[in-house]
Design goal:
Length: 436
């Protein structure tokens, strides 16, 4: 299949091979979106079927010849594969086709490199790119001889590839040190929010599901949002008021995708830590996408890798304006709690229901009561103040302290443990509140 040559964008031949049903299957429509999001111009699409990939070229001799003819006919500078290639397969294909080869992982990394705006985001992308390219440089300079020689420097010396690997290792160490500092700053901010008992809500979901549009609508922010994959890369935090709960912190994160490169997840661990430690995950789903169930499963796979799968989740089915007969509503579980909301972020339909559902769910994790402390409970009183959990304090007629507190249930349980006060022995209302 050939396309008209566009006026701009680097021309590319696309290659997609179908394999039997399994975890390694890719979506050709998603591939086309990735290519266009990267700014490439699709000139031809080569498809085929195989039972297993060819060890040398991934596609085999017959399909390789078909790709070569497409490259020559379209004068393409690049061939993009909708699959993960090994370093040796990339080198073999470049030798056979005489042009640059980029696999699915490399394409996603290229998109991330284009989208990164902050210093942290650029460092994370560079780290992932270096880790991805490291094995592909091993044989790139194998034709060069030893670099060291001359009087007083005889010996085996150092090959160019060894020097390159050493430089890459040094650069990786430098980037990791810088990212550790950034992670320390993020950890400090999270601890400050915890001390002030400010709940955090992290928006997650498949790429291009409408997360940033929803974020902008809810918080009146101006985060870049577009109908393209990975429009948002750098995380953004905004405070939003929730009725009956006060302020919460809403976090907009990078979109997920099937077979998201593992090294990319590793590089973005500092950023995605916001997701792992969020009090609630807002899973935004493109309700009009025919593949929404598969996309939801892919998001859960990434969340599992981030050790965030156990966090409370509120599903938000977005884009109901594209679903005939659908109107904004909240679906509730057997206990009456929200578990899914139907909205259109683009048209601002049902967004108040999202805020309502967030408030209902977060109130389940928040402890708001008046505690009566005796003089013996001085350590707990000190800990509550250090946690910034005290709203008001008065002294009763019997000399006990009446403390109006507001904090997460988990935090209160931790403070009680540090003060050596069992929940069962303490004020009964605490135990009752736990059972709500």
């Amino acid at each position: 299949m050939f396309f008209d040559r566009p006026d701009n964008g680097e021309g590319a031949v696309l290659v997609h091979i179908d394999f039997p049903e399994g975890a390694d299957r890719e979506d050709p429509r998603e591939f086309d979106e990735l290519v266009r999001s990267a700014g490439c111009a699709p000139l031809a699409l080569i498809t085929g079927t195989r039972s297993v990939p060819d060890a040398r070229t991934y596609i085999g001799k017959g399909k390789l010849e078909e790709v070569r003819e497409a490259v020559e006919f379209t004068e393409a500078e690049l061939v993009l594969f909708n699959h993960a290639l090994t370093p040796s397969q990339e080198r073999n294909l470049e030798e056979e086709l005489g042009c640059r080869i980029l696999d699915r992982t490399g394409l996603i990394l290229d998109i991330f490199a284009q989208r990164a705006r902050t210093h942290e985001g650029k460092l994370q992308v560079e780290l992932a790119q270096i880790q991805h390219q490291a094995t592909r440089l091993v044989h790139g300079w194998s034709h060069l001889d030893r670099q060291k020689g001359g009087y007083g420097m005889r010996g085996t010396g150092e090959t160019q590839s060894e020097a390159d690997r050493r430089l890459l290792r040094d650069r990786i160490k430098t980037i990791n040190k810088r990212l550790e500092r950034v992670q320390g700053q993020r950890d400090q901010s999270r601890r400050a929010r915890k001390r002030s008992s400010t709940p955090s809500v992290s928006i997650v979901g498949y790429t291009n599901a409408g997360k940033s549009t929803m974020f902008n609508t809810i918080t009146n922010a101006d985060v870049y949002a577009a109908d393209q994959m990975f429009a948002t890369l750098d995380p953004t935090l905004r405070r939003m008021p929730v009725a009956g709960l006060g302020e919460v912190v809403l976090v907009d994160t990078v979109g997920f995708i099937r077979h998201l490169p593992h090294k990319l997840v590793e590089a973005f661990k500092a950023t995605l830590q916001e997701t792992r430690e969020a009090d609630l995950l807002l899973h935004v789903i493109d309700g009009a996408d025919d593949d929404r169930q598969a996309n939801m499963e892919q998001v859960e796979i990434v969340l599992d890798e981030l050790e965030a799968l156990e966090r409370p989740v509120l599903q938000v089915f977005n884009k109901i304006d594209l679903l005939p007969g659908q109107s904004p509503r909240i679906d509730r579980d057997e206990s009456g709690l929200p578990w899914r909301v139907w909205v259109s972020a683009k048209n601002d339909q049902g967004m108040e229901l999202v805020s309502q559902a967030i408030g209902e769910l977060l109130s389940q994790t928040l402890f708001e009561e008046v505690l009566e402390l005796t003089p013996k409970d001085g350590q707990l009183r000190s800990l509550l103040y250090a946690q910034q959990a005290v709203v008001n304090e008065t002294v009763s007629e019997n000399g006990n302290i009446m403390m109006d507190v507001r904090l997460e249930k988990d935090d209160l349980q931790r403070l009680l443990s540090r003060a050596g006060i069992p929940v069962e022995r303490f004020i009964p209302q605490v135990k009752e509140h736990w059972q709500k």
